[in-house]
Amino acid sequence: MKMWEELRNISLLFCLLSCASSFGTRYTPDWTSLDSRPLPEWYDEVKFGIFVHWGVFSVPAFGSEWFWWYWKVALKPEYILFMVKNYPPGFSYTDFAPDFHAQFFDPDEWADIFEASGAKYVVLTSKHHEGFTNWGSQTSWNWNSVDNGPHRDLVGDLGAAIRKRSLHYGLYHSLYEWFNPIYLSDKQSGFKTQEFVEKKAMPELYDLVNRYKPDLIWSDGDWEAPDTYWNSTGFLAWLYNDSPVKDVVVTNDRWGLGCYCKHGGYYNCADKFTPGQLPNHKWEKCQSVDTISWGYRRNMKLSELMDLPSIIKDMVYVVALGGNYLLNVGPTADGMIAPVFEERLRGIGAWLKVNGEAIYSTKPWRVQAENATVPVWYTSKSSTVYAILTSNPMQNSFKLLTPKTSHNTVVTLLGNPEPLKWAPLQTSGLIVLLPDLPFSPAEAWTLKLDA
């Protein structure tokens, strides 16, 4: 009998070793191990995604998605005055929820717009700092989109539409909640207790992953407490080892005070992060079409929105420096993407249809930018170099000083199949004879140099 038990134990050990080997590296719940995980390749290849900030804050649609905080904590006069003028005494923030009805929300229509933009991934706010969840979270009481407001699973509905178009689906999730009494109790203890993490934050994250199988987790709301409070490394170890998305999921860097730009899958660093030089780690810039707010504002002005040339210049800059560009739009409370946002997104898509090969699946070149007659940004793919001009040089000949050429070099203008005439410069670089550049609302054109 003892011999059989020993054989069984040996067999079990062999099985465990074989299973561990077949599933690859097992990550331990510490940053040294977690940060060693290779970033899934799909993320670096896609380059461009859409961020969607949608929640109860879309109902007042005034000032910012931080409306509740600015009204009740920061006590900003314009928010207080807005409430005094438009709502009766005693009206609370939670009273906005029934008007978050999303009656015009058509997830297929949204997905069509996102696909038309040329984006390859979409990140939806599953829950912002207000704590309202856009799915039927079991730990949210009735503060969710199934029991309140829209009475539908917004996370699931949009995810199904996104995936029908073969786009990657990501979920934003705020770890903390401004006014959750359990969180405030933990905060009062100096984060020595973890009741909120154990009863709310982590159960929600595990539920989101198991239920919706997102390709990306965009964590936020982490900055008041260390990662040890949030148990971030424990969650990420499970995510990378045992979750249903362990082989494809991508994460950002907002997992606790002091973590951003230091730990995680890729780096967001600060909002609208714009490095001055090529970073040594994969990164992402999140940027909003509305430069004032991430959520929809009824009081936004055209002058406060990024125009199409500004968006394209920003995206080109980010990709040339090895980043991904996550561009945000805020839908209305009734579920519409404002026409001005749709116009921007479709304009990006039109530009990418011609110039996308200089963006998707590219790598930073040995030189990222050149101060020519007009700004030039470089990307590369194998032996091909792309020079993206972000304004019209208004001349027939154009010099590129950085590329090295040979007699086999072929230069073309993307969108124009005919090779362009060029000549080498004395030291390095070349001078290209440009055709009449086609009209581009984005005010950007790409020269392709094949060695």
Question: How is this fold's topology laid out?
Answer:
Blueprint: H1 2-22, H2 31-34, H3 41-46, E1 48-52, H4 67-72, H5 77-86, H6 107-116, E2 121-127, H7 154-164, E3 168-174, H8 181-188, H9 195-212, E4 216-220, H10 227-230, H11 232-241, E5 250-251, E6 283-288, H12 308-320, E7 323-329, H13 339-355, E8 363-371, E9 375-381, E10 384-389, E11 397-400, E12 410-413, E13 422-424, E14 430-433, E15 445-450
Parallel strand pairs: 1-2, 1-7, 2-3, 3-4, 4-5, 6-7
Antiparallel strand pairs: 8-9, 9-10, 10-15, 11-14, 12-15, 13-14
Helix pairs in contact: 6-7, 6-13
Describe the structure.
It is built from 13 helices and 15 strands. The chain has helices at residues 2-22, 31-34, 41-46, 67-72, 77-86, 107-116, 154-164, 181-188, 195-212, 227-230, 232-241, 308-320, 339-355, and strands spanning 48-52, 121-127, 168-174, 216-220, 250-251, 283-288, 323-329, 363-371, 375-381, 384-389, 397-400, 410-413, 422-424, 430-433, 445-450. The strands form 3 sheets. It has a 7-stranded parallel sheet with strand order 5-4-3-2-1-7-6. Helix 6 (107-116) packs across helix 7 (154-164) and helix 6 (107-116) packs across helix 13 (339-355). It is globular and about 75 Å long. The termini are far apart. Belongs to the glycosyl hydrolase 29 family. It is found in: Lysosome. Residues 23-357 form the Glycoside hydrolase family 29 N-terminal domain. Alpha-L-fucosidase is responsible for hydrolyzing the alpha-1,6-linked fucose joined to the reducing-end N-acetylglucosamine of the carbohydrate moieties of glycoproteins.
